[in-house]
Amino acid sequence: MEKQGSGVPTHNLGLDLLRATEAAALAAGRWVGMGEPIQADADATDRMYATLNLVTMDATVAVSEEMRIETCNGLEAGECIGAGDGPSVDLVVDPIDGRELVAGGLPGAIAVMAVAPSGALWRPHPAAYMDKIVVDAEVADALVPEVLDAPAAWTLALVARAKRKDVEDLTVFVLDRPRHAHLVAEIRDAGAHVMLHREGDVTGALLAALPDKNVDLLMGVGGIPEGLIAACAVKVMGGAMVGRLRPQSDEEFAGIVSAGLDAEQILVTDEMVNSEEVFFAATGITDGPLLSGVQYRGQRAESNSLVMRGQTRTRRLIQAWHVLEDRTDRWSRYIPGEPFG
To answer: How far is residue 194's CA from residue 199's CA, in Å, rounded to a whole number?
Structure first.
């Protein structure tokens, strides 16, 4: 698809993105607690992309999850989406950040995405994983790239000084993965608290970057799409993030070498997102520490979303009420043994 437009959005794309995250959350919400993570993701993805294709933009998917998740339902990196006119932008999406949370009816799943002008986002394809540390604006000036090579205790001491806290008062968000066993032990040995979450990398970064949440930093290895989405959000909030590729298999490492990527390079926020004109949107699917989940009330549904714009540093919390299509006649078409809806 030929690129058109200036590459710099002239209006607040955040509200357009909001409609897409709302659509994904409403679709995923029907699968909460049903034990079907793949189907939930497929429905959320379909609804998200159908909505995005109506948006006046010429977007390219900067990075995607196809290198990390075999059952990924999304577009591949480099594919185009949008109405084909308007500004040329880079897009990173995660229709469900927390598929297993949705399947198990567990808290913290969100639908989320971010947009920046074309060429503004780091594109380390075919890498799948990255190491990252995220802090809020209070610590931003103190966070140096070297923290990725430092012991956890050193990093915690740096954050504690910047926040005028004791290390024992810090809480660190870490994904609950076997690869983080040593990191968790280091954090606890230093005296800090660990908030372990089964999934929800983007939510963890937001909790660390927001000034009014009980999380002081995020540490650990997670997906690159989630890392880039987080970097956009961190930039809006004036926080800081450092990251570096962290391949989790020989195959991924070989792909990185073949692509000429530097697995040792440490990037800061401005190198991951080199524009202020970024947009971020997230909608809760299940109740969590950041957003409330979708609630269905007959012919109406309620959603809770966060929308942010980098240029103005605006954060909007939005509670929305959606009129749903009439489902009453679907009972007459229900076949026992098949999923309803």
So the answer is: 14
Q: Minimal CA–CA distance to 233: which of 201, 196, 265, 263? A: 201
pLDDT digits (tens, 9 = 90+) for 52-100: 999 999 999 988 765 444 444 556 777 888 887 888 999 999 999 999 9
Q: Choose among 38, 126, 45: nearest CA to 78.
A: 126
Instruction: Provide the token pair at 99.
Output: 């598929």
C-alpha 281, offset from chain centre:
9
Separation in Å, CA 30 to CA 49, 109, 169, 285, 295? 18, 13, 39, 9, 10
pLDDT at 341: 46
Q: Residue 219's closest CA among 289, 107, 130, 139?
A: 130
Residues 254-278: what's their mean pLDDT?
Answer: 95
154-to-147, 160, 176, 194, 255 alpha-carbon distances in Å: 8, 10, 22, 16, 32
What is the model's pLDDT at position 325? Answer: 75
Helices 181-190 and 152-163, interaxial angle, to 10°? 50
Asked if residues 283 and 44 have their Cβ atoms less than 8 Å apart, the reply is no
Report how far residue 215's alpha carbon sits from residue 320's, in angstroms, rounded to the nearest whole number: 27
pLDDT score at 68: 43
| Structure letter (DSSP) for residue 314 | E
CA distances, 85 to each of 46, 119, 224, 294 (Å): 21, 17, 28, 32
